[in-house]
Structures are given as structure tokens and as C-alpha cells.
Amino acid sequence: MATVVVVGTQWGDEGKGRVTDLLARKAHFVVRYQGGNNAGHTVIIGDDEFKLHLIPSGILSPGKTAVMAAGTVIDPLVLADELEKLERRGVDVSGYRVSGNAHVIMPYHCLLDRLEEERRGEAKIGTTCRGIGPAYVDKAARCGIRMYDLFEPARLRGRLERVLTDKNALLTGVYGHPPLSVDAMIGEIAPALPKIEPYVADTASLLSEAVKQGKNILFEGAQGTFLDLDYGTYPFITSSHPIAGGACLGTGIGPSQIDRVIGVTKAYTTRVGAGTFPTELNDAVGDHIREKGKEYGTTTGRPRRCGWLDAVLLRSAAMINGLDAIAVTRLDILDELDKIDICVEYSLNGRAVQFFPADIELLPSCAPVWEQLPGWQQDTSGARTYGELPLNARRYLERIGELCGVKVAVVCVGPRRHEAIVLDNMFP
Ligand code: IMP
Hints:
This protein has three domains: about 5-100 and about 200-260, Adenylosuccinate Synthetase, Chain A, domain 1, CATH 3.40.440.10; about 105-195, Adenylosuccinate Synthetase, subunit A, domain 2; about 265-420, Adenylosuccinate Synthetase, subunit A, domain 3 (Adenylosuccinate Synthetase, Chain A, domain 3, Alpha-Beta Complex), CATH 3.90.170. It has helices spanning about 15-25, 75-90, 105-120, 130-140, 155-175, 180-190, 195, 205-210, 245-250, 285-290, 310-320, 390-405, and strands spanning about 5-10, 30, 40-45, 50, 65-70, 75, 95-100, 105, 200, 215-220, 260-265, 270, 305, 310, 325-330, 340-350, 350-355, 365-375, 410, 420. α3 crosses α4 (about 130-140). It is an alpha/beta fold. The strands form five sheets. Strands 9-7-5-2-10-1-11-15-19-20 form a ten-stranded mixed β-sheet, with helices on both faces. Bound molecules: inosinic acid. Inosinic acid binds near residues 40, 133 and 272.
């Protein structure tokens, strides 16, 4: 059996869904352990493009169990809609399970996310406004609603009565917003409940049993290492733990039961929302990457900030996640470029820095130290073996592996399922 974690090594959008989809062929279970519908995966199968926000992309491979574990946050309306859309397109969703202990994103979480961002003004985080942060705040404050609560009307009403007393004080007192009623909240989510109830389960026991039975389990991280609540570029982060360790927290699987960790990196770097981005390109090359790579958010449609690959970021991600291998996605987006820069280290007050500064406030003072490699100026999208890649593309990949000290196991050269080169089978 093997349990593998797929984790983003940058600021999200690395193409984890794409890599998960590739590896999911050998997995029996595909599991999300954190985040909610702030995520967005695009998976292309044949001529069909699937955009998923909540349900693990493993659902698209028949016969898999696709799980959202206790560490995730669930907007019931979005979940019901996603299940319906998949069914309408003929996808079998019977293998979907969501933890009864996952916290629920209620309509007031989405409202508060938006009001808080507006109030922050210039200092806004640039959240997806999907209610993620406020839902995790309530979880930590012990006043959240969990999936199981949704199907116990008296319990749900009692919890909402207590929590809305506080939320209404905040809404009216701080934001000048009219108060919300318990009936309105229940009425808003009620249509989604019959659709999602059949899928609610004790996922910790389900996964523990799967481990005992020697099943292959793929843990699919959402967002990326540098959006992690503890290890990311605080406060410009999400409110959960996208790092590999989050897979244990979020699912109830013990650390000794994780076999391998694969980090996913784009062949360049992108970021959505605010925060320092040392290798950002505000020029024609950045625009070229954005347009060729269609670098616009799957969830919000926002243009992504684009830049060169940052080996400091990757090296730090390798350390924090204990990476065994990396998957490099979107190599083909760099095909036309005649020169490619990599940031190999930072210079901080004249000192060479190999890892992200622990005091993240120092990041804006870090200047990238560049190494320039020749481009390959050839179409790589047809390559199916490593040897079919142009020499300069292989040199680029080898340099990435050297710089972060982790071998490249997968290279993606296009968005379709078969447009990939698998150098190492991740499920031994
Ligand atoms: P939140 O997760 O909506 O609270 O947003 C917090 C930060 O994380 C913002 O900078 C978002 O742009 C970023 N973020 C959240 N989810 C994703 C994602 O899936 N990809 C990239 N950035 C994300």
C-alpha cells in the first residue's frame, strides 16, 4: 500500500489537480484535507473541461472514493451545485464522501469575508471572498457549525441562535449591516441539504480502514505551501494548512502512515491576491506567461501575477513538506522564450539567503539573485518521454532539481491527461 501527499510548493495554482488526476489512476482514495471552494482545479479529459472547487478531482476517475476530510470547510450550496453539475455531465459521484466533522461555510461567513476585506481597504488580503477565513475563525473559536449539525434541526437551530447573537452584534455594531435571522439562514441552505446528506460520513474511520486494508491513498493539497497559516507569507495567506503535515491534521491519519510527499511546482511562479512576490515580472514576459498560460483564477477569474521560478521558494517548500519528489507543470508555457531566468538565492543586506526568511517581514528586502539559462524555443507539448524533450528543457528541469535538492518525477507539457512525462511511479 502507499499513501502519497500531493502538495503545492508555491502560492497555489501549481496544477495539483492535474498531477492528482495523473496519479489518481493508481489510487483507490483521493482525499482533500484542508480548504474549501477557494480552490479551483481544472482537469481536461478528452474534449471535456471540468472545473472543480470542492470535490477532489479523483472523482473523475471511475471507481475511486473521493473524500473531503474533517479539515476542509464546506459551503453546502456550492457542494450541492457541484454534485449536480457533475451528475448532469454523466460523472458517477457515488464514491464521494464528506466528513460529518468538516465545518460548514454559512452565508454569514461569506458576508463577513467581504465586509472584512472592504474594511481593510489598502491592507486587504485579496481573499477569494468565499467565507474561508471566517469559517476557520469560528472553528478555532469553537462556535462553528459542522456537517453533522446540518441534519439535526433542533441542534442546528440552537447553535445558530447562539452564534447569530454574536454575529449580529458584529454586523450591526461594526459594519452597519442589518442583522441576520436564524430562519433566513436555515432557509438559505435548506435546498442543498437533501442533495448532500447521502454523502456525509465518518471519513477518519473510513480512511483508517483503507490504510489497514493496504489501499492506495492520494492526499490532494489545495492552495500552496506559502499560503499556509503557519509557514506562509503571513498575513497574505489562507486560513488552513496546505502543507503536507496538514494531511495528517485534516484527515486523522497518523504521520507514520504517510509514505511519500510530492511537491508540485509550475515551471515559473504565479500568485493571486496581495503580498510580496520577489520574482514577479511586470513586463512583456510576465504578460506572455499570463496569456499563453491563461493565468486567470479558476475561482475568481482574477489575473494571476506571474514571474520566474523561485528556487528559494522551492527549496523552502522541500524543507517544510519533506518532499520526496517534484512534479513540474506547464513547461510548455515557456516554449517560445529565448532566455529563462531562475532565482537561485536571495541577497539580504549583502548576505546570500538560501531559504525564505523566518521573519517574513524581511521578504520585501530580499533581492533575487538570477541565473540565466538558454530557452529551447521548440514545442514540447508532444513529448511523452524525457528524451523527447529539447536538451535545454532537460537542462532547465535538471537545474530545478539540483537547486531544490529533490528529483523531478513528473513533467507536464500540456493540460490534457496524456500531455505528461512520468519519470517515477509514485505508487510503488
Ligand atoms: P482565502 O483562502 O479566500 O481566505 O484567501 C486568502 C489568500 O489565499 C488570498 O491571497 C487568495 O488569493 C489565496 N488563495 C486562496 N485559495 C487559493 C487558490 O486555490 N489558489 C491561489 N491562491 C489562493
